[in-house]
Amino acid sequence: MLAGHCRCYDSPVPRFLHTADWQIGRQYGQFPADDAVPLAQARLAVVETLARLAVEHRVDAVLVAGDVFDAQTVADRTIRQLFNAMEGFAGPWLMIPGNHDAALAESVWTRAARLGVLPGNLHLALQPGVLAFPELGFSALAAPLAQRHTYNDLTTWFDGAPTVPGQLRIGLAHGSVQGILAPDIDSANPIAPDRATRARLDYLALGDWHGCRQVDPRTWYSGTPEPDRFKGNAPGFALLVEIDAPGAEPRVEQIATGRFRWQTWEHALAVESDVQAVIDRLAALGADDVLSLVVSGDVDLAGLQRLRAAFGVTEARARCLLTDLAALRLMPTEDDIAALKADGYLGEVITDLRDRQVGPADTAAVAAHALAVLAGILSERQAIPGAPA
Known about the structure:
six-stranded mixed sheet, 30% helix
């Protein structure tokens, strides 16, 4: 129970901020270091944003539904930074471990305790149980993960758990609601889809799914507050939850919290204007964009040079640009070959490589790479004054 904190706002309606999957300490090995570091720092910065939102919206508590840390092995400095980022909200933070930071016998949480950094307003549930807040009018039923993967529903005990009559019943869990997510989603840590109804919960705050998603009127995934992958499943939100009284349907509002915009584009090139379309889209990107760009189809040498120039400009302006040109075939025109001054044997090689790109996939990939390298060397040679023709 939280001492010294009561609802002293103008509105008597209980109000919560639901968040999850902070993944503090996550590494972004697919990016260069100068891109990976700001992406990791954004995960700490968004916790400061959540604390500010909790104050602005006068919430009674922040519900953190697991995966606070990305791994058990995060640095002590990272642990300290996380709890420093929470200082902006003096009210209760209710928190459970998820599959990434499960409450093992020795875990990131036991290290945090030894470091003495767990704040007094943190209500950390390392074991299943009820956290009662009678002054605030609610009880929280917490189902932390004590190991990375379980195959029993850890929220089953919610159904018969007693709480103070006349007060809200709030569930806090981390796992996969059965039957609603994509078939390839890991089925570990299952949660019954009708748990809120069975357990007479007024709201069930879930973590694990990184996108914001409603299961039913009382059951929501908040998603990660800062996007962290190229998956368009509505990440970058926290949920503001208001419940008028026990049994009343909650009002849930999505609040944007994310900084970086992660996008995946796929462009198939067929005609010259397709190249310009890619370049025009790239020109609209800014410092908060993280883009994975896949380009396929056919392009002549001039078009490829224009694309590469646009990539260079974009890499300097956007947060990060990852390009995949594996399915792009360089098809030099006769004018391209003439401009490269690749007559005689070199011209024959270029023509042969161009033609091989329409053959078997393995041969086509090798030919495309060889042609790109050869064309690049010849283009550079043409750009050097005095270079032999």
